[in-house]
Design goal:
The protein is an alpha/beta fold. It is 39% helix and 21% strand. It is elongated.
Length: 229
């Protein structure tokens, strides 16, 4: 489980980030003071550090500078309420990996967090083939057959199906699916996921009204059940 340190002195923002990231499965530690945040970061063990720029005790720029000066390569995401380009450039020059300007959407922060955590990690081999029930999927050849009959899927439906079957038994939240399938396209909404899932069920399930493989978890999202119920 990735560990994330958040150093943010605004309680409402800190609590919101803690809640959102915890729901995504991250182990989150929060700190409201800059100097104490630096002490926590120096102890190590974190996979990502989220730093506010304006902090009591020590600002985010100084924390970033000290960590990088000591050879700490932990990814750093800066939070700033300032819109001046010079502040963003300074953070990056001091060694920050990315920044988000307040106010920000939870989806944007989650997308940037996931992108930073993926950097430097070896990628899993891409899933090429999978079968469930009477469905056979060739992701490399972009072909799907159900009971031997070819099924046409859109590019987004292929991407969504690959995401689901790559996490068998794992509940994926709608926000997670949006980030992974649609990325930075902020014009889509959570209901877009429901529509695409409905399309997949219609094409792949024996009974779309009573799906066995692409299952809804009420109020959370969807999961793929490889062997059915």
């Amino acid at each position: 489980m990735p560990r994330i340190l958040i150093v943010e002195d605004e309680d409402s923002i800190l609590m919101a980030l803690e809640d959102d990231l915890s729901l995504e499965g991250y182990a989150v530690t929060g700190e409201t003071d800059g100097a104490r945040g630096l002490e926590r970061a120096q102890k190590g063990g974190y996979d990502l550090i989220i730093l506010d720029v304006m902090l009591p005790g020590m600002d985010g720029f100084e924390i970033c500078k000290q960590l990088r000066g000591a050879g700490d390569t932990t990814p750093i995401l800066m939070l700033t309420a300032k819109s001046q380009e010079v502040d963003k450039v300074l953070g990056l020059e001091l060694g920050a990996d990315d920044y988000v300007t307040k106010p920000f959407s939870p989806r944007e922060v989650l997308a940037r967090v996931k992108a930073l955590l993926r950097r430097g990690k070896p990628a899993n081999p891409p899933l090429e083939r999978v079968s469930f029930g009477d469905v056979e999927v060739d992701f490399k050849g972009y072909e799907v057959r159900k009971a031997g009959v070819q099924v046409e899927l859109t590019a987004k439906e292929f991407t969504l199906l690959r995401l689901l079957v790559s996490h068998p038994g794992e509940v994926l939240r709608r926000d997670t699916i949006l980030n992974e399938v649609w990325g930075d396209d902020w014009d889509v909404f959570p209901r877009t996921v429901d529509t695409h899932v409905a399309n997949l069920r219609r094409k792949l399930e024996d009974d779309p009204a009573d799906p066995k493989y692409i299952v809804n978890v009420r109020g959370v999202g969807y999961k793929f059940v490889a062997d059915g119920p």
